[in-house]
Amino acid sequence: MGFWAINVDSMLISVLLGIIFIAVFRFGIKGATSGKPGGFQNFLEVIVEFVQTNVKNSFYAKNDLIGPLALTIFCWIFMMNAMDLVPVDWIPWLAQTIAGDPHLYFKAVPTTDLNITLGFAISVFFLIIFYSIKIKGLGGFLGEFAFHPFGKWAMPLNLILELPGFLAKPVSLALRLYGNFFAGEVIFLVIALVGYWQLPLHFGWAVFHILVVTLQAYLFMMLTIVYLNQAHTTH
Amino acid sequence: MNLNATIIGQSIAFFVFVWFCMKYVWPPITSILEERQTKIAEGLEAADRAQRDLNLAQNKAAEELREAKQQGAQLIEQANKRANQIVDEAKDKAREEGQRLIAGAQAEIEMELQRAKEDLRAQVAAIAVAGAEKILERTIDQAANEELMKKLASEL
User: Is the CB of B11 less than 8 angstroms away from the CB of A115?
Assistant: First the structure.
């Protein structure tokens, strides 16, 4: 398959989870009040306030996009990651049953697909470039690579020092998330092969992964906020 | 792992969902949170104010109570004084009245005494005359002896 192929399994789960995210929040706040919040409204408010606090603590410029961006990243990636807590063969089995093909390959956890994590990272990378140019101008943005840290006479050295760091941002974002979940899912698959001993092993690994799921979603969100804050400030 | 157009698809989906979130999810929730924050701040402020008012009112009430007690004590004192005065006055009046009554009675007694003496004197004179008549066995000239009798009677 060439470049123009689409991984339908990852895309399907990804978009499905995105729709669930938007729908849950959209309908969850229907009839929400500023008075005493009900149980579900309270739950949503806790998430939003958590994201808002992190944005306020790490993002000093004024930009209305950052809050929703961080919330979307956190919730969406959290849900994608959480798919690995579903027993490994349930969703593929469901897909095989629906498709009628017992050999159908189906990836249930979108963040184990490098394309998905790269999609996130490149989008964030694009936003970094967009806001850097918008705030500092094209000259200011390029000047950051050319004239730091050694002044304009050492431009080649500056470029060698600064460009890899900049280009590493999306790569590290994508690979960190992908690596964590690909490896995690591989472990789940290996555990699934050991017979009856898999139950306690699964339990232990899943408990550990509850932590990883949240932590990786949080990390991705925080790094996005920090990178965009850098894009908004001149050093 | 092949890199393919899924990256582009995911990026598009990402921006679409972020846009949705920015349009329909984030603003209502944050506005609700802000609204609640102001409400809570207002509530706390109102509670503070009410507490201050309460303290003020309590102080005022204590002050007024104290004043009222003072006034009451003053009134009682005045009333006691007045009562004593009235009793004293009544005693004085009674004493005076008693004295007056005693004086009247004494005057009457004096008068009675005088009258009794007068009567006695007259009777003694008459007895003396009658005695003298008996002794002398003759009628003494009433007129001639009148002077003598009177003198005798006054000496009694």
Answer: no
A176 is catalytic: yes
Please report, to the nearest 10 degrees, the dihedral formed by the alpha carbons of residues A123, B19, A231, A121 taken in order.
-20
Task: Determine the structural domain holding residue B114 and report its residue range.
Answer: 6-155
Residues A193, A187 contacting (CB under 8 angstroms): no
pLDDT value at residue A220: 95
Check B13 against A5: CB less than 8 A apart.
no
Assign A234 to helix, strand or coil. coil
Give me the catalytic one of A7, A58, A123, A176: A176
Q: What are the per-10-residue average pLDDT scores of chain A (235 residues)? A: 82 92 88 77 90 92 91 94 88 88 86 92 94 90 83 84 90 93 91 86 91 94 93 80
Question: In this complex, is the C-beta atom of B18 within 8 Å of any C-beta atom belonging to chain A?
Answer: yes
B16-33 pLDDT, tens digit each: 999 999 999 999 889 988
Residue A180 falls in the annotated catalytic set: yes
**Interface pTM, i.e. ipTM:** 0.89
Domain count, chain B: 1
**Contact residues, chain B, for A71 at CB < 8 Å:** 21, 25-26
With 0-12 / 13-18 / 19 or more C-beta atoms within 10 angstroms meaning exposed / middle / buried, residue A153 is exposed
Task: Name the minimum distance, in Å, from the CA of B9 to any CA of chain A.
Answer: 7
Residue B138: per-residue pLDDT: 60
Tokens, residue A30: 């229907």
Residue at token pair 């159908």: A104
